[in-house]
């Protein structure tokens, strides 16, 4: 099953759902972390078997999610 996180946008305060790629990457995202999300899917529509989810998480606290997953970098402590 795909892992989904809920995010609130800084720009306009809207709440959106975002897909968290890779198995176990949700562990790197804590409650009040600032995340960078990007588009995910087809021109603003949902992708595949994940209805209503149009974004994916790319960075957590300024560090790339893939770098954290591959243990190349550590998340800053603050």
Task: Record the SSE blueprint.
Layout: E1 4-8, E2 15-19, E3 35-39, E4 55-60, E5 63-64, H1 65-69
Parallel strand pairs: 2-4
Antiparallel strand pairs: 1-2, 3-4, 4-5
Describe what is shown at a glance.
With 78 residues, this protein is mostly beta strands. Helix content is 6%, strand content 29%. It has a single domain, classed as Nucleic acid-binding proteins (OB fold (Dihydrolipoamide Acetyltransferase, E2P)).
State the helical fraction.
Answer: under 10%
Strand content: 25-35%
| Structural shape | globular
Give me the CATH architecture, please: Beta Barrel
Number of strands: 5
Helices and strands, in N-to-C order?
EEEEEH
The average pLDDT score comes to: 89
Largest sheet: 5 strands, mixed
What is the structural class? Answer: mainly beta
What distance lies between the first and last C-alpha atoms, to the nearest angstrom?
Answer: 31 Å
Within CATH, the superfamily carries the name: Nucleic acid-binding proteins
Our count of domains comes out at 1
Rg, nearest Å: 12 Å
CATH class: Mainly Beta
Given the structure, what is the number of helices?
1
Low-confidence spans: none
Q: What is CATH's topology name? A: OB fold (Dihydrolipoamide Acetyltransferase, E2P)
Pfam families: Ribosom_S12_S23
InterPro entries: NA-bd_OB-fold, Ribosomal_uS12
Family: Belongs to the universal ribosomal protein uS12 family.
Protein name: 40S ribosomal protein S23
